[in-house]
Amino acid sequence: MYTSQLKKIILPFFLGISVILTSCKEESKSGTSQVTEKAKKPNIVLIMSDDQGWGDLSMNGNTDINTPNIDALGENGASFENFYVQPVCSPTRAELLTGRHFTRLGVHRTSAGGERMNVNETTIAEVFKKAGYETAAYGKWHNGMQAPYHPNSRGFDDYYGFASGHWGNYFSPMLEHNGKIVKGDGFLVDDLTNHGIDFIQSNKEKPFFLYLPLNTPHSPMQVPDEYWNRFKDKELALKYLGEESSTIEHTKAALAMVENIDYNVGRIINRLKELKLEENTIVIYLSDNGPNGWRWNGNMKGNKGSTDEGGVRTPFIVQWKDVIDAGKTISQIGSAIDLLPTLTALSGIANNTKEPLDGLSLAPLLLDANPKWEDRFIFNHWSGKTSLRSQQYRLDYEDRLYDVVKDRGQQIDVSEQFPKITDSLKKAKYDWLTEIKPLTSETDDRPITLGHPDFEYTQIPARDGIPHGNIERSNRFPNDTFFTNWKNVKDSITWDIEVLEDGKFEVEIYYTLAEKNKGVAVQLINGTSTLVTRITDVNDPPLKGMENDRDLRQESYVKNFKPKRLGEIFLRKGRRLMILKLPHMDGNAGIDVRLLLFKRL
After folding, report:
1. Looking at the structure, do residues 156 and 240 belong to the same domain, yes or no?
2. 266: closest CA among 278, 254, 279, 280?
3. Residue 224 and residue 254 in one domain
4. How far is it, in rounded angstroms, from Cα 492 to Cα 512?
5. CA-CA distance, 252 to 259, in Å (whole number)?
6. Does residue 391 sit in the same domain as residue 469?
7. Which domain holds residue 57?
8. What is the pLDDT of residues 37-87, one digit of tens each?
9. Is residue 34 in a domain?
């Protein structure tokens, strides 16, 4: 029985029973509070940062950073001491969206199409949309760019942001809004938050599901001066204890970026308060993996990409004012796969998923004083390495055993001391891998999709193409790249394309072209369909991004690519190569190419 003194509580369909509690002082003979008003579905605001470590919060003991708004979520709600995600971006996002292990979903890379969730999966947005919620996602998607993988085809009514992984500029960059290319407005996290606040405002009278997958502190390490100035001359007290190291500028930039996130979390909470929605809104905050550098992280082993504690443990905070006890700390282990079943249980709606869930509802842990809870395993997998976490132990990818309760830093291997426990966890790992059979690049034969009949736009970016001849990528990380070094008419770019339905399309190319090379013929070929256009307009902007970087980046720098209408082309349904060629060049080089944009007519 929930006995907290509450002003107003709504606990719909918890464990299958709909119970509404109000501020009545007397309880009925059955022990439940009087039902005095109709249940109202709670709103959901789900905020996820990108590459933020567990230790990048003042609430977790980091004295070098100040995050009062995120900390306040924990003070007003519940925080998990042992919550786990996957080592990198796309797998965690897929698990959060589906409640299923990413290894079941077709996700096996963070680019080149391997980040996409299989189309038969049901997302949390589809579940809430079916239950009458308005849905929106603003930020870094990273689970597929083209429909039916695009967020608009995965249950989100409104999408603004970038669907790729890396992004090369965080200040008024090229973005998309429901497939259409647009220009961002200011610093990207602030811009995404503005869209989130507008969405809340527009849907204040009806239930809404808002997903904010923010893009920082992922590199490039860009942050407004207001936040950078707090750190640029600051002496940091906390450092990573291992032999590995990152530049001090990288660490300072990451912490500055998190303080900017904290500011924006405060903006969201303040708007919920102004609209009198806070008591009826579940707010969740987490990160998608460990820190993207060797900075202080609670002295845990590993960072982003690692299956050790430091690579997969994340902050996880759930606030539901006057429903979840304020300041509650939960020690039981949880995982990103638990989000979908937890939020549907708290909201009182059916899962309606096509496939069985791997996650568990955490509602008993959040709501019960003495919850019934069985021990479980949480699996972490990446790049052929698998570890698993029980309530007390972690078996790492080399089958070393650590008592994480006593040894969070994984310093002492106790596998010989506890051979039976070690063998049982090794068997659990083997059984899991045998059942899952993770997809690999060698076994993934999915083409890039184009022309979904229900969606107007399809982007075909450089990220998904293959260069031939002299053409090169601008960087080894495909997500944030363009094609350059087009030297002669024999060079080409190809994309493995499946056209989903016959149709006529208007095509734009986003390009640059130097003055000395103006005058090129561009040919686009798909099967028997061909489109030829001449480009004479010069567009030769410099590389940019470095002027806003606080630390040397690994990603590609970017340019201001200009759209050019190539014309119209009829594409027939089916799988075949899309080929981009330059059959004529007036100069000694051709164009640089960022993407092709197809609009169904």
Report:
1. yes
2. 278
3. yes
4. 16
5. 11
6. no
7. 41-367
8. 335 899 999 999 999 999 999 999 999 999 999 999 999 999 999 999 999
9. no
Looking at the DSSP bridge assignments, the partners of residue 402 are: 394
Residues 310 and 390 in one domain: no
DSSP 8-state secondary structure symbol assigned to residue 113: T
Identify the residue whose tokens are 């502190």: 217
Q: Is 534 exposed, middle or buried, given 0-12, 13-18 or 19+ CB atoms closer than 10 A?
A: exposed
Instruction: Report d(CA 200, CA 136) in Å as an integer.
Output: 10
Strand, coil or helix: what is 347? helix
pLDDT tens-digit map of 473-489: 999 999 999 999 999 99
Pair 389, 314: CB distance under 8 Å: no
Answer whether residue 375 is part of any domain. no
User: How far from the centroid of its chain's Cα atoms is residue 479's Cα?
Assistant: 14
- The two tokens of residue 355 are 């496939």
Q: What is the pTM of this model?
A: 0.93
> How many domains does the chain divide into?
3
Cα Rg for the chain, rounded, in angstroms?
Answer: 25
Token pair of 366 as six digits: 């959040």
How far is 144 from 148, CA to CA, in rounded Å?
Answer: 8
Q: Count CB atoms within 10 A of the CB of residue 276.
A: 9
Give the Cα separation of 166 and 159 in Å (integer): 18
**Exposure on the CB side of residue 316, measured as CA atoms within 13 A:** 27
Q: What is the CATH number of the domain that holds 535?
A: 2.60.120.260
Q: Which residue has the tokens 């998608």?
A: 288
Same domain, 321 and 417: no
Tokens representing residue 61 in the block: 């003991």
Q: Are 417 and 511 contained in the same domain? A: no
Domain stops at, among 367, 396, 427? 367
